[in-house]
Write a structure and sequence with these properties.
Layout (H helix, E strand, L loop, with lengths): L2 H15 L16 E2 L5 E5 L4 H6 L6 H12 L8 E4 L13 H18 L3 E5 L1 H11 L6 H4 L4 E5 L2 E8 L2 H6 L4 H15 L7 E2 L2
Helix pairs in contact: 1-4
Bound molecules: iron/sulfur cluster.
Amino acid sequence: MCEAARELERVAEEVRACRRCPLHAHRTNAVPGEGNPCARVMLIGEAPGYNEDLHGRPFVGAAGNLLNEMLKLAGLSREAVFITNVVKCRPPGNREPSEEEKEACKPFLIRQLRAIKPEIVVCLGRHSAGVVFGMAGAKFSSIMSARGTVRLLRVAGLEVKCLPTLHPAAALYNPRLRGLIEADFRLLGQLASGGAGGLERWL
Ligand code: SF4
């Protein structure tokens, strides 16, 4: 097992035992994240939902199926990437995570980023983009204005290409948003294959 995989396993064990924020009291299973420890692409969502909490795995419900389709559009498989969330335990009733909960969980995300050292970070939704932009000291106003644009950010001591997009669940509630997510994942495909110009530098 490589050092990245060992560190990810240590993080996962700590997450499963974590009581740093009130969300621990509501979880069936914590959801540390999963995927390739050497992934070039890391995807960060918001929080586990009902199915994720039940299985202890990220993006396994309807939003997960849509994410798999989007990854296919980008020419990527689940096995090639690493997927996690900003908070690792399900907020009750699928409410949004609070600022305090996101802050309490951030050290785990930072350790995952440092272990994996991804070239590309895809932020799925406004909570993820808000946390990642915040770590880089970059301005974030809304996911609709940030999505679809790649920025170079310095996050957790790494320089990453950051691509914010909508959370796949948004397209389940509003199918008209699906086209925007598809466009963003096509851009991800170009980025992952070494293409895509027009990077904005936000360092
Ligand atoms: Fe710990 Fe994060 Fe779960 Fe809160 S959400 S209990 S900080 S692992």
